[in-house]
């Protein structure tokens, strides 16, 4: 006769999965990316301070070229330079304002239609400005309008407008390509669950179903949260959520290593609203477990420190006065440090979710540029040789954040624990 206890445990776990993923959605399913729905801009933002400054500078250079081409350098005609500059700026600034308002609509059109509409808009403004300028000059001189001169100036302006619009278009498309490549780079460096970790977790789950259904439920919750965060799009997430996810991973590893794995969390002065890249702590912790604790017969303690500290190297971090310090210390065998085995494991083996140490640096660089600091090196600890990883991140990062429901539900407990 077979016992019904495993079946009951499996039913409880299935019910737990349905609770984690409401409305029939898989908790590990990748959520839709709303940012990908917005079309890429056709032209740069001409209403920004940088855009207006660039347009004014280009307009003044064009006016200078026109005056030098017509009147020469000796004597230089400053009065004509002023009049030409006024005409050029009257054509450039209204055109930029109109194109700025049309920018969202241009992004939804085909490139040919958007180019035709942009060029027609600039030509219309140019025609109105030149007509007003020639009418004013003719009225001041008491002579009729010189339409041939008007046509010549219009053709020169049309050619210059075409060149400037082409330049702006190429610059924006280059920027769009850079953003797409950066997004693809971050996605390629995004953490993925390692097969060995999945196999070990499933083995632990299989052994727990028959003897401890409650712990099996908890293991399913933790695995669901890890997979959801791993498969989701790469963004900055709240610090509390990342801590909760890292603690879930450590709970899974504790099932496999038992008392050999000890953990010590030191969370002080947690800054409000702090964010960091998703799945940043988990691969570093897995590296500490896989190449540190698991290789020691009696195990050891992994120390995780997270706190806000004053900025010591402003040239790297920026103008802020504080930064976020993440530190992970794990014991290692002395023989591995002396022979360099540990460093070879870090550089040659894919740690955590498919990322080596260099990939972690690249991922941080993709988010923060040169405003972060990353160090990983052996050091002397209280009970022998330790390996220390430290990451310093700016607290003023302006990147969009996201949340994942399974982790968010658990992060409230972590936030409460931190505040105690």
Key features of this structure:
about 425 residues, alpha+beta, 14 helices, elongated, disordered N terminus, disordered C terminus, Sig_transdc_His_kin_internal
Walk me through this protein's architecture:
With 420 residues, the chain is of the alpha+beta class. The protein folds into 2 domains: 49-186, no CATH class; 192-419, Heat Shock Protein 90 (2-Layer Sandwich). It is 60% helix and 13% strand. The strands form 2 sheets. It has a 5-stranded mixed beta sheet with strand order 2-4-5-7-6, with helices on one face. The chain has a two-stranded antiparallel ribbon with strand order 1-3. β6 and β7 form a beta hairpin. This is Histidine kinase. Pfam families: His_kinase (PF06580). The chain crosses the membrane at residues 46-69, 81-102, 114-136, 148-169.
The helix count comes to 14
Main beta-sheet annotation = 5 strands, mixed
CATH superfamily of the largest domain: Histidine kinase-like ATPase, C-terminal domain
Rg calculated over all Cα atoms: 31 Å
Please give the domain count: 2
* Assembly state (oligomeric): single chain
- Give the CATH class of the largest domain: Alpha Beta
Q: State mean pLDDT (0 to 100 scale).
A: 75
GO molecular function: kinase activity
Transmembrane segments: 46-69, 81-102, 114-136, 148-169
InterPro entries: Bact_2-comp_sensor_kinase (IPR050640), HATPase_C_sf (IPR036890), Sig_transdc_His_kin_internal (IPR010559)
Keywords: Kinase, Membrane, Transferase, Transmembrane, Transmembrane helix
